[in-house]
C-alpha cells in the first residue's frame, strides 16, 4: 500500500508540471486504458466465483480460482466439493475488499504510462528534467537583457498575414 501511495504522490507531482492540454490528453488516455469500476464490480458479482474479475485485472491465481471452482462443482457429488466451494466463496468475498485497490493501481499505471507517452520521458526523468530546466531557465533570464515583454505571436499554417483578428474570415490560402 505504501508503494501505491508513493506512486500516487509521484503522479500528482508530475501532473503539476504539465500544461492543460497535456493533462487533458492524460485524462483521456487513462479513461480509455484503465479498468472501469462498474465493469469490475459487475464481473466480480456475476463471474467472481470463477475468477472473472481476476482475469480482468490480470491477477495471479485467476486460473487457480477457475479450476478450483470447476473441481468444487464436479466434486459436490462426493461432498468434498462443498468445502472447496466454501473456500472459493470466502476468497470471492476477500477479493471484494481488494477491488478498489486494484482499480486505483490500474489507473495509476495508466497515468504513469500516459505521462511517459505525452512527455516522451519516464516519470523519474520528467521530474529530474523539470527541476533542472527551471533552474536553467532562471539562469538564462538573468543573463539576457530585458526585451519586449510582448510574447512572439506564432503564425499558424493557414493564417494569412492580413488576418488581424485570427478568425479566418478573410478566406486566405495557406502559406506557401
Describe the overall structure.
The chain has 176 residues and is an all-alpha fold. Helices cover 68% and strands 0% of the residues. It is built from seven helices and no strands. The protein has helices spanning 2-16, 20-33, 37-47, 52-56, 62-74, 80-119, 123-143. α2 (20-33) packs antiparallel against α6 (80-119). The radius of gyration is 27 Å and the shape is elongated. Mean pLDDT is 79; it is low at 133-151 and 153-160.
Along the chain, the helix and strand elements come as: HHHHHHH
- How would a textbook summarize the main sheet? none
- Radius of gyration computed on alpha carbons: 27 Å
Distance between the termini: 57 Å
Number of strands: 0
Contiguous low-pLDDT stretches (5 residues minimum) are 133-151, 153-160
- The helix fraction, in percent, is 55-70%
What coarse outline follows from CA principal-axis ratios? elongated
Determine the mean pLDDT: 79
Strand content: under 5%
Count of helical segments? 7
Q: What structural category do the secondary elements indicate?
A: mainly alpha
